[in-house]
Amino acid sequence: MKKLLTPLIGNKIFLLSLLLFVSTRPVQAGDVNSYLVLKGQSFFQSDAGSAAASGATIQAQVSPNGFNFVTNAALLPPGGTWVVLPAKSDGFTLKQNFASVVALDAAYPNGTYAVATAGVNDGMKTNYLSLTGNLYPTTPHFSNFNAAQAVDPTLDFTLTWDAIAGATANDFLQIQIRDCTGNKVIASPEFGKSGGLNGLATAFTIPAQTLRSGMTYTAEMQVVRISTFDNTSYPGASGVAAYLDDLQMNLITTGTQVGCAQGQFQLVFNFASGSFGSGTTGTISFPQAISYYFALYNVDNDTNYPSTVTFTGPSSSGLNNTTNSNVGSDFGTSAFYSSPPINTPPFPGGGIYTVVYKGMSNNFNLPNPDAVNEQVLIVPSVAIDASNVVQQIYWTYKSSSGATIAAPAFMGNIEIRVEGFNGRLYDAGNEQNRIAPSVTNHFPTQTIIWTNVTSIGMVFNDLVGNSYDSYWNRTLQPLAITTTNLPIATQGSFYSFLLSASGGNQQYNWSVVSNSLPGGLTLNGITGEISGTPSTSGNFNFIAQVQDTSGSFTNRVLSLLVNAGNTPAITLSSPTVANGQFRFQVNGHSGVNYTIQVSTNLINWAALLTTNSTSTSFKVLDAGVGGFSRRYYRVQTGP
């Protein structure tokens, strides 16, 4: 379901889009992506006349370049004291509303603001932004207020406003339409994206069927003027100080008024599942029609969520006081309810749908979904690298007959849901990272191991808020140990070999479950490395086991031949650490060439010391251990 947005000026969606726009440039990234200080004034237009002032706000935000890159942030107003920016899921944000600009200026006057950040790599940084001149844009005004009080949702509606005096193409402008619960229904493109509006714009068209009948919406215009833009003081980060005007008014659609319902409602249409097989391209047989639909109801910010609700819809919906079949919750802050699947047929009509929640009827007036004419499958493919990491997800649009088509006009946005053995691995296409239908590829912003993926969901939401889902299942490769032969070892000489496996759900855990390794050798359960110095010779059979994170495991009988050595076993003793230096003693045999090797990961080794000792033991000093939490050492003998 769509997430609720804060119905106040300078909401987070606006800030994120502005920061993303101004910070895009080829500079080496640090801990901070961007930092912003914004002062805003708000207005409400209740008739065709001028808008009235309705409040003011201060916002400060620090956006890190990655999770936990920044540990805290604070703001110092001119002549004031430091104010801590509260931590949010996407950074650090301070927002405080005031009754008027006068009250805002008393607490946060114009002048130079300091923004302090503590980064895990960059350390403490303090940067300064000048917010002066009261550069608020001229108060905007919706010019077709009266028409906006009786909008026919079945037709396009163009929202218009007077040209903003003094505005330029360097000012930013965005329109949002939100429902009575604050949920964003439609908005003009984000700042810096194709089709985005600037201060010279005077109109925005809401496509037919975007709005629902009998509803009161909020039309909101935000106009931003930048006072300071600084991309040099903090290399890799952008600093912005800006002034904002926010104008709101009611927008009312014609039809039976159903009031403001609690929660959100949508219809979810589902296709039969496709498959990746054992490859990376989705396949399915055609023709392919919608298999079923269900009604979905979501409630946020309530308590004591009940276990059941009932759904009733128009006669064509198949819903008549129908109890939900599924219920779920998100950390106790929201709950969702879905009706049973309906497939007789899966093409409900428009009209009033009622959800009874806690004994109260919540009515939703839906336009005709016209799902029979929106049967489009999104067929995905995946590009992976040699390490089995997903590099790209790309897709084509297919009609129900299997023909490749362009993105239809009724598509609103695309969502991608990557599922794993233990739940959702990755989401794309959310409110902060919307994917337009014209885009047909996506580069994941986090690591996805392909063998950990069970399915990928490809979803499009149409312009009236309904969802069309298809899931593409991956045929899981069985877990297998791929090592068949072990290199020969020599008694008294260091030995190292990595066991390998494929399939299953990484990461792996290794063990020896029958017999044992030769004396002096051990198996690393995390890396699968057999290492050490064998103390006896002979042919040793043992059973190795690998287990994945889903609990699956497999065994393999392996054999290791240890040849008799010409020198006694080598041992390391007397380890000490002091003043960033590590000392230890090598005990072996005189007259032998020894190479002491060091590693931080048991994979890449570097020579630390090469010597031909004239005694059976010698000292080794490693002066480079500072800054490492652990280092590994091994001894190699030979020419």
Compact description:
Keywords: Signal. The chain has 639 residues and is an all-beta fold.
Structure commentary:
The chain is an all-beta fold. The protein has 2 helices and 47 strands. The protein has 4 domains: 12-252, no CATH class; 261-475, no CATH class; 480-563, Immunoglobulin-like (Sandwich); 571-637. Strand 31 and strand 32 (467-474) form a beta hairpin.
Which structural traits does this protein have?
nine-stranded mixed sheet, disordered N terminus, Ig family protein, mainly beta, flat, 639 residues, Ig-like_fold, Immunoglobulin-like, Cadherin-like_sf, signal, calcium ion binding
Give the helices and strands, then pairings.
Elements: H1 12-22, E1 32-44, E2 52-64, E3 70-76, E4 83-84, E5 87-88, E6 91-98, H2 101-107, E7 111-119, E8 123-131, E9 157-160, E10 172-178, E11 184-187, E12 197-198, E13 203-206, E14 216-230, E15 238-252, E16 264-271, E17 274-277, E18 290-300, E19 310-312, E20 322-323, E21 326-329, E22 334-338, E23 351-357, E24 360-366, E25 376-384, E26 390-399, E27 404-405, E28 411-420, E29 423-428, E30 441-442, E31 453-462, E32 467-474, E33 480-481, E34 489-490, E35 495-498, E36 501-502, E37 509-514, E38 521-523, E39 529-532, E40 538-547, E41 553-563, E42 571-578, E43 581-587, E44 593-599, E45 606-612, E46 617-622, E47 632-637
Parallel strand pairs: 1-15, 16-32, 17-32, 34-41
Antiparallel strand pairs: 1-2, 2-6, 3-4, 3-7, 5-6, 7-8, 9-13, 10-11, 10-12, 10-14, 14-15, 16-18, 18-22, 19-20, 19-23, 21-22, 23-24, 25-26, 26-27, 26-30, 28-29, 28-31, 31-32, 33-36, 35-39, 37-40, 38-39, 40-41, 42-43, 43-46, 44-45, 44-47
